[in-house]
Amino acid sequence: MYYQTLTTKMFSLATTRRMMLARRNYCYASSFHASAAGKRKTSSSSSSFSALNNDNDENNVVVLVEDDDYDDDARRESSSSSSSSNNTNNNGHIVLVDGMSFLFRAFYGFQARSDATKLINSKGEDVGVLHAYAHAMCALLESKPSHFAVCFDSKGKTFRHEMFVDYKANRPPTPEALIALIPKVSELVEAMAIETVKVSGVEADDIIGTLATRSVTEKGFKVSIASPDKDFCQLLNENVRMLRPGGGGQFSAFTLREFAKTHEELIQPEQFVDFLALVGDSSDNVPGVEGVGPKTARKLLNKYANVDAILEAAKNGEDEFEKLGTKKVREALKSEKGQKSAQLSRKLVEIRTKLAAPDVNGDLDAFRVTTPDDYGRKAMDCFERYELPSAADRWKAIHNIIL
Prior knowledge:
- It comes from Bathycoccus prasinos.
- The structure is a single chain.
- The protein folds into 2 domains: 8-257 and 356-398, 5'-nuclease (Rossmann fold, 3-Layer(aba) Sandwich); 269-349, 5' to 3' exonuclease, C-terminal subdomain (DNA polymerase, domain 1, Orthogonal Bundle).
- 41% of the residues lie in helices and 8% in strands.
- The protein has 16 helices and 6 strands.
- Strand 5 (240-245) and strand 6 (251-254) form a beta hairpin.
- The protein is elongated and about 75 Å long.
């Protein structure tokens, strides 16, 4: 059983009643100017946060509803309870969030909207991205993980740029308006009593890879990686899954089962890094090997298991090789350029799982979800400052806080 995509029509009666009361009672909910009557159509480019853009509409929430099997396993792994946490799956399940990916999705989703449908507070500030981000974090927290962390990329170049100067060089510059939101998002997340992690010279992928690996091997946790980034497929196993944001503000699980369907049961998640090494990754400007497409890559990996074995077979002229790929593909893999490109690409796409940085090697219980020491005052101050009433009510309900 897995997380299921759910429409708001399937909300439980209790959840619906809570949200109705929250909307009626929150004292500054009327301060927004951006509400529009009725449902509004949005373009497909409005991202998975399109359902969050009207703060006064109960339908505008991120929904993540859980089939219990995954976390039932986590609960069984630890029967101990914690007085400082309101979770039911103690010590069993950690959610690791790819922080910047959510910021980009929210930013570009709201940027595509007309001025009439943006979320503007009483001070004239556009708070749509903060609203979307807060609701996304609440949706993930509502799955009742015992541990939770948002991981951010560090500023500037990383060790991958040192390996390949053109790494991500095809991307346009990050908009200044988005950069200006980073400290605000960090402030909001920290105010919500969520731990954040950033390591100098390292991407969030590697932070998540290291924390996920440690969580499983050292603690026996179940791990959910919240990200749309396909690179995380290489980390999937029976204890690690992805939660992908989708249309309408919904999350869906991507597990071993979904991976097998996507790749026609020809490759395993641990081969995904080899798959990308062959086909490349245009989003990160990873070259791969010219002429090798997904279908051929899967067939080759199904027979030869990894990139090194494929390159060796191409050089040695095995008779079976050309049955799996064309002569042109074989020549590309046999060439010096193809061999170097495949090997370099593999290094670029491989997520590190053993970072030595202290920030990812401390006590994992630092990421435990707990009721804030100040009983939510810092969070409420932040929500009030930006005027995010529905997010405030949703966050209070998660922590059983009444203010």
